[in-house]
Design goal:
The chain is mainly alpha-helical and 209 residues long. The longest helix is centred in the first third of the chain and has 32 residues. It is 79% helix and 0% strand. The chain has one domain.
């Protein structure tokens, strides 16, 4: 797999992941609907900062391991493949019927930093993000490319996609909020995302170093 092929494949998968409703989407939509677009943008910036923090941690740790050990590569490969297949099957067989527009409230203060901190901590303290990055990012690593910088670059690309999606959410809060709360839309997105995860999990299991 070349660098261009890796970036195209990652963009497709990460783009679908970005628009699938989750906790980050709930935070931004709820903040935009209740607190206004400016505070929602600050919360979105915090969410992206959390993604980059996880991306940096994963890139640093995995970069060292993947360069040093074939065994580590194989362990991460099989664990990641199993996790993605498990996620994919779960989403296909048991898609959600609804998307609950709720997010941790908690005190955030009145400063810009307070609203950014809400998004940042919500993302940073969610271990699922770290587990997913560990499982997901390494499979898009082309042969002969330094793992650490490339993996962080993928996380940064995911962050850019997130910023673009959050901008759309904030700009069209009410219609998108209504669409994302339709059962048929949520089930369709979950099953589509599950299919992508399943396909990439199988691909990862068959990948050779």
């Amino acid at each position: 797999m070349t660098v261009v092929q890796a970036l195209l494949a990652f963009s497709l998968a990460a783009g679908l992941l970005t628009i699938t409703p989750g906790l980050d989407t709930a935070i931004v939509l709820r903040t935009a609907a209740v607190e206004g677009s400016r505070r929602a943008a600050l919360a979105a910036a915090g969410v992206i900062a959390g993604c980059l923090a996880w991306g940096a941690a994963v890139a640093l740790g995995l970069g060292v391991l993947l360069q040093a050990s074939t065994l580590a590569f194989n362990v991460i490969k099989w664990a990641g493949a199993a996790y993605l297949v498990w996620l994919g099957i779960g989403l296909i067989l048991k898609p959600r019927d609804s998307f609950q527009l709720s997010a941790p409230a908690g005190p955030v203060g009145t400063s810009d930093v307070g609203w950014m901190r809400r998004g940042f901590l919500t993302n940073l303290l969610n271990p699922k993000v770290g587990v997913f990055y560990i499982s997901f990012l390494p499979q898009f690593l082309p042969q002969g490319v330094a793992p650490g910088p490339f993996i962080f670059g993928l996380a940064a690309l995911h962050g850019v996609m997130g910023l673009a999606w959050f901008a759309i959410l904030i700009g069209a809060t009410r219609p998108l909020q209504a669409v994302l709360q339709r059962s048929a839309v949520v089930r369709w997105l979950d099953r589509l995302t599950g299919g992508v995860f399943l396909a990439f999990g199988v691909r990862l299991a068959l990948e050779r170093r």
